[in-house]
């Protein structure tokens, strides 16, 4: 498989197998490990393919049990991408799709550095804006909001405090990718109930480090935060 997106090739192959009758309605697909061996790809690529199939309602994912065929006719696509809140539209525009794990890997490499630079370069006005975004994040969680306004703005404000417009552009692009259907499917399947509160507590650690101008602590706290998100979304389905 050598085209742009491995998971898209896997999706097409599984759809073809369903059309040929190799998988029946209600039948369980092979495990992630077995599918990875069949297609000679990583389990990450298999997970992305499964999410895409689930978004299209072709399979049903039962965490802890497996993946089951829920539709055998390849018609009627659904749309599960989270809606961008109007307050976030100026920041997050539609771009070409990148996969969720590509996105998270890029954020893991970029955002700890941004937090470090923010601790070194932030102004008093910028730390106030970071605090305001954090308090919005807290309010969102109290209201059980799914718009993630405070969360997204918290990361954007930190990028702005790094004092480099190019980094702000990169981060806004990456955050915009979290409003695709496949990322929405990942969040739907793998977000535990306590994840917003856990992220809020991690945000507080990052905020304190930036406020205290402790660049190493800011770097470490942001790296831990993004890595925790990756770990949660990397849990196996089976």
UniProtKB/TrEMBL annotation:
The keyword Plastid does not apply. GO terms for molecular function: DNA binding; DNA-binding transcription factor activity. It comes from the Bacteria. Signal peptide: none annotated. Residues 4-72 form the HTH gntR-type domain. Keywords: DNA-binding, Transcription, Transcription regulation. SMART domains: FCD, HTH_GNTR. The keyword Repeat does not apply. This is HTH gntR-type domain-containing protein. It comes from Bartonella tamiae Th239.
């Amino acid at each position: 498989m050598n085209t742009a997106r491995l998971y898209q090739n896997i999706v097409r192959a599984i759809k073809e197998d369903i059309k040929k009758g190799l998988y029946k309605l209600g039948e369980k697909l092979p495990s992630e490990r077995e599918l990875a061996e069949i297609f000679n790809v990583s389990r990450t690529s298999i997970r992305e393919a499964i999410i895409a199939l689930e978004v299209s309602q072709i399979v049903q994912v039962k965490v802890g049990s497996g993946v089951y065929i829920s539709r055998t006719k390849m018609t009627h696509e659904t749309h599960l991408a989270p809606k961008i809140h109007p307050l976030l539209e100026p920041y997050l525009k539609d771009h070409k799709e990148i996969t969720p794990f590509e996105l998270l890997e890029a954020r893991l490499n970029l955002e700890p550095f941004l937090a470090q630079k923010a601790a070194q370069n932030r102004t008093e006005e910028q730390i106030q804006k970071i605090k305001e975004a954090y308090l919005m994040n807290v309010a969102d969680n109290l209201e059980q909001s799914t718009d993630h306004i405070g969360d997204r703005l918290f990361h954007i404000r930190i990028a702005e405090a790094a004092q480099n417009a190019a980094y702000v552009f990169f981060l806004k692009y990456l955050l915009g990718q979290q409003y695709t259907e496949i990322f929405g499917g990942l969040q739907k399947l793998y977000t535990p109930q306590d994840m917003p509160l856990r992220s809020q507590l991690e945000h507080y650690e990052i905020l304190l480090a930036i406020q205290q101008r402790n660049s190493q602590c800011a770097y470490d706290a942001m790296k831990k935060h993004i890595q925790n998100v990756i770990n949660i979304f990397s849990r196996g389905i089976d």
